[in-house]
Structures are given as C-alpha cells and as structure tokens.
Specification:
Elements lengths: L3 E2 L3 E5 L5 H9 L1 H4 L8 H6 L11 E8 L5 E11 L2 E8 L8 H14 L6 E7 L3 H9 L3 E12 L2 E11 H6 L2 H4 L12
Parallel strand pairs: 5-6
Antiparallel strand pairs: 1-2, 2-3, 3-4, 4-5, 6-8, 7-8
This protein binds coenzyme A.
C-alpha cells in the first residue's frame, strides 16, 4: 500500500528525520494563510516508527521529491466513518505551481479508493483557497456546498467549501485523471 510512487513524488510514512523540515514548513505563515487548522503532520512525524493505532484511522504521510529525496510537504487521509475519509495536503511555498498538489491529491484518492476500499472521500477548503479548490477539482472531487463559519481559528470564523467524490464517480473518471501515476507535469523545480 505504501509508499506510493507518482511520476515525480514519493508519498511515504514519516521518519523522525523529517521533523526539522516539517517544522519549518508548518511555521511558514504563507502555508497557513488559507489553511488555518493546526496540522497533525508534525505530531505524526514525531511519533514516527511507533506502531499506528489498530485499526488505523489516519494516514499522515510525507511528500518527497523522488529525484532529490527532499521532503516538500505532508498529506493525509483521515477516516470519518467506516468507509468515508477526509483528505488534506500542504506543500512548502517554493514548490507551489508545479502540479505537485494535484499529484498528491490524486495519489490520496487512489489510495483511498484502491487499497483502503473507501466509498467516499471529502475535503473542506477555505473559500479564499483558490489553489486548493483547483487541486481538488483536478483530482476529480466535486463542489458540494458552502458552509458559513465552518470553523473558528486564528481569531476569526472561516467560511468553507465542501468537496467530495464517491467511488463510483472516481471509477468513471478518464484514466488520465484517475491514476496517481498518470498526471499532468508542469515543469520541475528540483
Ligand atoms: C494547495 C497547494 C497544495 C497547491 O499546491 P500546488 O502544487 O501549487 O498545486 P498544483 O500546481 O497542482 O495546482 C494549483 C492550481 O491552482 C491554480 N492556481 C495557482 N495560483 C492560483 C491563484 N492565485 N488563484 C487561483 N488559482 C490558482 C493553478 O493554475 C492550478 O490549477 P490548474 O491545474 O487548473 O491550472 C499549495 O498551495 C499549499 O500547500 N497551500 C498551503 C496549504 C493548503 O492550503 N492546503 C490545503 C488546505 S484545504
């Protein structure tokens, strides 16, 4: 099941060695500008090597550029029901705009509907977060609605869009958009 190889990325379990790079990433205010919730990635990296809870309910994973071996982000799938999960991701600012976000989201969707046999995958995105909305749409998720004041964080309320994809919808996607291994590459920065 893991690691997942995409054309340019490796999505794998965290190692304790990932902690410093992840601390820097999480501390960047530009990364958190439209993603106010505290990331669970850092906790997961600090616990790296320990056995996950059984049965496992969250997959907090590292995003690494295959060519350089450099950690550039984190992503996760978290069960919200027996066969439903939420997905999330974040990348270091200097790596935005190269299609990596799309590559990660497609890998998570493939993990969810493939090995994890999920029925439905959802995501919540702040209304200002246009990049993330595009990433979700690129991965086949559809807009389902807007929730006013969905969450309170960083001293204010956040209006959020809800996106989701059902397994049947994913299977109907053209192969080009479905597979994490087939993806649009928009230049590389490493
Ligand atoms: C969201 C994030 C992962 C996107 O990563 P990325 O590697 O830049 O994503 P991609 O390159 O695959 O795609 C970005 C899309 O946004 C579009 N985009 C870029 N800048 C944009 C802007 N200012 N406004 C609207 N769309 C924009 C791109 O054109 C692209 O869409 P397209 O494929 O339809 O052309 C990254 O910005 C990030 O880590 N942000 C901080 C954390 C975060 O917001 N996480 C999501 C929480 S829901």
């Amino acid at each position: 099941m893991l690691p997942i190889l995409t054309p340019r990325l490796l999505v794998r379990e965290f190692l304790v060695e990932d902690v410093p790079a992840l601390e820097a990433l999480v501390a960047d205010p530009r990364v958190r500008e439209h993603a106010p919730l505290e990331s669970r990635a850092l906790d997961a990296a600090r616990r790296a090597g320990r056995a996950p809870r059984n049965p496992r309910r969250t997959w907090e994973l590292a995003v690494v550029v295959r060519r350089s071996g450099r950690l550039i982000g984190a992503c996760d799938l978290a069960l919200t029901g027996p066969r439903d999960a939420d997905l999330g991701y974040m990348l270091a600012r200097r790596h935005w705009g190269h299609g990596y976000g799309t590559e990660v989201a497609r890998a998570l969707v493939e993990l969810g509907f493939g090995s994890l046999r999920l029925r439905r995958i959802s995501a919540i995105v702040a209304i200002e977060n246009e990049r993330s909305r595009r990433v979700l749409e690129n991965a086949g998720l559809r807009w389902e609605g807007l929730t006013r004041r969905h969450v309170r964080a960083l001293g204010r309320s956040w209006d959020c869009h809800r996106y989701a994809i059902e397994r049947a919808g994913w299977l109907r996607l053209p192969a080009l958009r479905r597979g994490a291994r087939r993806t649009i590459m928009r230049g590389e920065d490493e």
